[in-house]
Known about the structure:
Blueprint: H1 5-13, H2 18-24, H3 27-38, E1 68-75, H4 80-83, E2 88-93, H5 106-109, E3 115-116, H6 119-131, E4 137-140, H7 146-151, H8 153-158, E5 165-169, H9 175-180, E6 187-190, H10 197-204, H11 209-224, E7 228-229, E8 235-244, H12 253-264, E9 269-273, H13 294-306
Amino acid sequence: MRAGEGVEKALWMAFVPSYIELERIGELEKRIQLLSGILKECRLCPRECKVDRLKGEKGYCRAPVELRISSAFPHFGEETPLVGHHGSGTIFLTHCNLRCIFCQNFDISHQGQGEPATPSDLARAMIRLQEMGCHNINFVTPTHYTPQIVSSLPEAIEMGLHLPIVYNCSGYESLEVIRLLNGIVDIYMPDAKYMDEKFAERYSKAPDYPLVIKEVLKEMHRQVGDLKTNQKGVAERGLLIRHLVMPGGVASSESVLKFIAKEISVHSYVNIMDQYRPEYRAHEYPEIGRRITHKEYLEATQLAKGFRLYRGF
Ligand code: SF4
């Protein structure tokens, strides 16, 4: 053992995710039942398709009832507090309930490229990532598979899982589902994409996105608070918000950042992202058929500072 390794391990081991306590008192099983029940008339997201996923019916997201994994690996391109030294244990799930026309992962999210996985498969995947030294289990686009993910936790806990769970989502979430995740998710990482319903309709067919994201951010923050890290700067619990700056101001950066600062917290960790590129069908919409300029990005960060935000960008 190298010098200090025991201390480091003790510091990290001091964190115990609350899903372990929920399992101990029998609450996790109740949540699994409640979440699984939603699949019968699916309202896992605000689209409320009411299809019977248990019978194989598919809704707007096109997701099957059996969860599909596209890839699972230690990701070093995520936010610094998630990556730490050994990576974020990222599990990319297929399909998406938002289906933006500029999707950067359309082969996974729209075309569903991935392999079916049972709850046991998923539990083993989580343990593999933990054994590789990852600092968390980071579910990418989990919304339409939430019951299946939570159903895999008892087996994973039995196998020794003790890492924080990251819920890395589009922000187009059902409040009912997010409330059922209280104490299960340690780190919420939603996008905050739009604050203008006409753009939310045009690019994501979700005109209610601005209304939804406001309530969802409040509930997530109520549950986990601002992002907290351990002595090594690795995230343990809290809210981490992503905002992708888009060309021509269609992401309403000013309104998004103002809402976060005024209604959530000025201590919010906000990753203001500059990597927009016109993917998938974005070229059909000339106003977003280009990358953002340096000036557009700078304006967004200046706005954030003007609202007294200071973390994550
Ligand atoms: S998760 Fe899929 S099927 Fe369920 S309500 Fe949302 S879009 Fe519809």
